[in-house]
Amino acid sequence: MLNIPELLEIVLISVDDMKTVLLAQRVNKNWYTTIGQSRSLQETLFFRLPEDALHSDRNANRSLRCNTLLLGTPQKHHSGAPLYPLRIPPGGTNNDVYPVYSSAVRMYLLDKKVKPFGDAKQPFLTVPLPSFPDESWGIECPLIFGAHSMATQFPYVNKTLAEFERGVRNQMMLGHVHRALRRRSVKSPLQNCNTLDGIPTEGSWGPAANPADFDAVKAAGFKAVRIPVTWTDHFEADGKTVNATWLQRVSDVVDYALTRNMYAIVNVHHDSWNEFDLTATSDYTSFETLFYSLWLQIGAKLACKSSLLAFEPINEPTGSTAAQFTELNKLNTIFLQALRDSGGFNAKRVVTLVGPGEDSVKTSQTFVRPANITNPWAIQFHYYSPYDLIFGAWGKTTWGSDADKAALDADFAAFRGNFSDVPVVIGEWEANNLIETSARWKYFDYLQTTAKKYSFTTFLWDNSATELDRSIEKFRDPVAIDILMAAVKGKPNAVPDSTTDGSITQVSSAFLYHKVGTNITDQTLTYNFNGNTLSSVNGPDGKALRKGIDYTATGSSVTYKASLLSKYITASSAAGPIASFSLKFSKGAALTAQVVQWDVATLASNSSSATTAAGGDLAIPITWKGINRPAAVQAVLPDGTCLVDTWTVYLPALQQCRTTYGNQWEFDNGHVIIKSGAIQAAIAAAQPVKFTFEFYPRLPCNNATYTLIV
C-alpha cells in the first residue's frame, strides 16, 4: 500500500552530464524508490509507477496521479499551471488513470556527485496542487502515474505573445499544395507535394509527412512549421464527427514538430472553399454549427499539446461582400469559443486570427477584433506579390529594382500601420524557382529583411517542388535558405547583381555561362556586397582559389580567369551545369557562381495539329542544353496578336504576349507542355499559334519554337 503524502516528492538524479535523468520517489530520509528515467531535464516526464505501487483504495478515491511537472535545468526552469484531475472510474483497473490528492509536488535535483540514495539538495521547483471535487471531468493534461511503461509529454508553459513570436522567428511551412491550385489542374508538377491538406486525403497530392522532413527543416535552421490540414473528406456519415483515425494522424504529425522542440501552427485549410465557403450561401446557421463542432473536436484532440502549438481558424477564407466579411469576423469568435470549451490548455494557447483571403488590404479594411478574446493572439496575412513574379506569369523573371523594393516596403508599412500594436505573422510567402536565380535570392533577402524591420514573423511556403526535395531530404536552393537565415538574424547579405529591366537582354551573376563552341575567356560578375567584404572564393573541391591568379576582385566585381574556367570546360564540353564556385563574405550567406555550358535546347518536333491534341495537354519531348527549365513562353497568332492576355503588349519587350505557368504551359524532366487551355484558345482563334519557349540565359537566340496548326 502506498501512502499518499501531503507532499509528493520527486527526486531527479543527474547521470552522465545530464544526458540521463533518473526519477525516484522519497521513501524516507535516505532512500528513494526508482520510478523511471528521461533523456533530459528539458522534457516534461510522463512516467508510470511500478505495478506494486497500485494498491491504493479505489473506493476511497485513493490514487496515484499528480499534476504536470514542468522541468527545466536548475539555471533556467519553468513553472507550471495546476490542472484538473479526472474522476476515478468505478471498478477501475491497473491500466486506468487515477489522481493523487497531494497539496504540492516538489522537485529535487541531485548532482551526479551526490550518492543516488543520499539526501537531496534544496528543491528548485515546487508546484502547488489545488483541491478539486471528485466529479471533475474535462480535458486536462497531467503527469500520469499508471501501471506499466514510461513515456514523455511536453510541458505547457505560459508564454507571452512576444515570447512565442521570438520563438518562431525562423520558420517554414511544410508540405502543402501549390498556392495556385484553384487556378489550375492538380496534375501540375508543382503539386506532387502535399500532406495533410490534400484532397481527398493525405498522399493524394504527393508524399505524406514523415519525421525525416522535420529533421531536414530543423537542420536548415527553421524553428517552426505551419501544418495546414483539410478536414472536408474526413467526417463520419453524420457529417459532423471527425474520423478518429484522421484526428490521430494530425496529432502524430504535430508531434513530429513538438518532439523536435519546434513550434507548429495547425489550421482548417482547403475547407475554406469546400465546407466553409462563405460565398456559397447566405444562411450561415448550419455553417457556424459545423465550424464550432470541428474546432471543438480539433481542440479536444490537441488540448494537451505544449505551448509550442498554436492554432489558425481557417486558411484564406472566401468573401467579397460586407455580409461575408461580418460572418468571417463571427467565425473568429466562434473559433475562440470552441477552443475555450474544448478544455486543456486551449484557453491560453496562442492563436493567429485572419481576414478575407488573408489578404493584407482586405484584412486591414474589414477585420474586427473579437470581443471575447482572452488568448494571446496575432494577425496573419499572406504575401504573394508581385503576382507575375511569384506565379511565373507574363514573362516576369527579374526582381530587385528600386521600384520593386519600394512596393514591397509600402505593402508591409501599410499593414503594420493598421495593426501597430498587434503581432503580425506572414503565414505564407514564396518566390518560385522558375524565376532567374539572382532575382530569387534578392527577393528572399529583401522580403525577410523588411519583415524584420516591421517585426513580422514569416512562414515560407513549400510545395515539395520548390524548397525541400523530400526524396533526399535536401533543399533544392540551399543558398536561398542560407540567405533567409542570415536575414532573420539581421546579418547583411551580399547578393548577386542581375538585370531588372524587362525590356533588355537579361544577365545574372549567379551563373558563369559559356556557349558551346565559343572560346573560353575571362568572365566578370558583379555583386551588391551590402557593406561586406569578400573573404574567399572556393572551388568545387572546397579549396580556396588563388586571388590574382584564379580570380581578381575589384570593388563589387569578381573576374574569373579563363585559365581557371578552362580547368572545367572546353569549347566542346557537353551542355549542362559543370561546376560551382563558392563566395564567402565577412557576414551573411555564402553565394555560388555556377559554371554552365549551354546551347539551344531542341524539341523532338516543331508542329502538330491543335485538334489532335484537343481535350488534353500536349507534351513535347525536349533535349535540355543548359538550365533545365524554361524562362518564359510566348504565344502569338500570325499577325502578332497575343493568344491570351492581349493587354501584355503594353509590358516591357520580354513580357509581351508571354503566358502563365500552370495555365498555358508547364514542363517536366523530359518535356515542355502546352496546356489544354492554350490548345482550346488556339482552336477558338481558328489560326496557327506559334509558341516560343525561351530559356536561360534569356538571350535573343536562346529559344525553340513550336506551332499548333489549326
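The record above closes out task 2.4. Task 2.5 opens with a second protein, given below.
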Amino acid sequence: MALSFSINAAIRPQYQGKVGHGNKRFPDSIRNLVKTAGVPSLVSAPQESLKKGNWVKLICGASFEDVVDIRNLSLVYTLAGVDCIDCAADAAVVTAVNEGIEVAREIVNIRRPWVMISVNDDEDLHFRKAEFDPEDCPLDCSKPCEIVCPANAILLQKDKSTAKFSSDTNTLHGGVITERCYGCGRCIPVCPYDKIRVITYVRDAVATAELLKRNDVDAIEIHTNGRQTVPFKDLWDGLGDSTGYLKLVAVSLPYAGNFNLSLMNEIYSIMEPHLNCLNLCWMAAQ
C-alpha cells in the first residue's frame, strides 16, 4: 500500500547558501547526530517501491509555496528515506525541493527521492487560496482566522509606522500570506463577518511544460474532477513532448464506483500517444 505524508510545518532555516558538492558546512557532530537517529542506509529505488506497494510520498501541497519551509522539509524527509516529494508546479518551489535534497545528500550518502509536481485541469480544492482585504476587518475583531490557520498564513496587525502620521488608525493591515496559504479553507467558516473568499486557479500547461524541460522534475500528478475529459485533453496536449522527461505520471480523480473504469480508459486513450514514461499510477479518492 502506498503511503503519503501531507506536511505544512513551519521549520525555519539554520543553514543557508548555495548547495555544492564537497561543501564543508556540516560539522561531524551533525553528521553523527543524523546517523545516530537512524537514517536508512539501504532503501529501495522509488520505482521498486512502486512495484512492491510500499511507496512513501511527502506531500508539500499543490498550493504551498513557502520555499524556505519546502527546502527544509525536503531535507528532513530525504534523510527519512521517502520515495517522492510532491510540490507545487512552480519553478522556485522545485528549486527549493532539489536544494533540500542535495543538502541532505551532503550530510549522508542516500539515494535521491523523485521530485513530483502537482497540476490540475480544472477547478480543484487543492488549487486555491484564501483572500480578503484586511482594511475591511473591524479593528476589535478577535481574528479567529489567524488562530485556526494551520500554516500560519494569516497575519493581522495595526500599521504602527503610519499611525504616528495619520489619524486613520481604524484599520488592520497584513492579511493572507499568499505563498503560505494552501487553501485548506479553515478560515472561511470562522470569519464572523464573512469577509474571506476563495480564489481558485488552474496551472498553465505551457508553463508546466517549460518546467518539466528543466529536467529536475521526475514525476507529475494530474488532478482531474472526472466530470468531462476535454479539460484533461487540453492539459495533456499542452504538455506535449515535455512528458518525455518524466519517470512517472499519476492521475488523481474522485472515486465514482464502476464509472471510474470507463473514465480511466478514456483518459488513457488521450494519454497513450505521448505516454513515454515507464510508470502510470491511478489514484481514486473518496
